[in-house]
Design brief:
The protein is an alpha+beta fold. Helix content is 34%, strand content 29%.
Length: 224
């Protein structure tokens, strides 16, 4: 893929969140609607197209952990808030090629993680589990070696201790397991088709109603 080739040619070992999601979207994985803004003019055009409420994030291939650097502003509701957040993020980034990702705010109480890691022995392995802050705390995840079939993906979901989070619970509708399975199968396919991809980390994948949407994503690459 062109995005991968460009990043490798530049000697980078990660894609930016924006690039990562372009790659995932090209494979049919549902991601947030988002636009890259480099100045106030492009910010306001993005705002007009996506609509409030919004999330603004610092976007640069040099940044992996945006939360720790204060580069994420959530639940922005008007032009004044958007302008202030944009200026603050650009100042904090201190990066010549930095931009701001203007993103729809996806609401949902259930957060999942989907990923890929390239094992030296087994090759691409797909990961699924509880996402958000719980990923590191609970480590409730399951793995399968790619390629996956739909039944493998459905088994992976049952393997985690917190699998009941996918059921209809507390007035929330059941997760669309078919679509989740499709995402897991596709992630395995991406790993098999792109040798330069070392890791994929989609965290969180938020259940918006029943529908899973990748809200954040990072692709780690290396020359094969």
């Amino acid at each position: 893929m062109e995005i991968l080739e460009k990043a490798l040619a530049e000697g980078r070992n990660t894609l930016s969140e924006y690039e990562s999601k372009i790659l995932l979207k090209a494979y049919g994985i549902p991601v947030t609607e988002e636009i890259l803004a480099t100045d106030m003019g492009s910010l306001m055009k993005a705002v007009e197209k996506i609509g409030y409420p919004l999330v603004l994030k610092g976007a640069s291939s040099k940044i992996a952990h945006k939360t720790e650097k204060g580069l994420i502003k959530v639940d922005i509701r008007n032009n004044e808030e958007a302008g202030a957040a944009f200026t603050e993020i650009m100042d904090a980034m201190d990066d010549d090629d930095g931009a701001v990702l203007v993103q729809e705010l996806v609401k949902g109480q259930r957060e999942l993680v989907v990923g890929l890691t390239r094992d030296p022995q087994f090759g691409p392995c797909v990961m699924f589990g509880l996402g958000g802050i719980f990923t590191e705390i609970l480590k409730d995840i399951s793995f399968r070696v790619a390629p996956l079939e739909k039944r493998d993906a459905l088994e992976m979901m049952k393997d985690i201790k917190g699998h009941k989070i996918l059921d209809a619970v507390r007035g929330m509708e059941a997760a669309d397991l078919d679509q989740l399975a499709e995402i897991l199968v596709t992630v395995g396919k991406i790993g098999l088709e792109n040798e330069a991809i070392k890791e994929i980390d989609m965290n969180p994948v938020i259940l918006s109603g029943s529908r899973p949407i990748a809200v954040d994503a990072l692709v780690v690459i290396e020359k094969p």
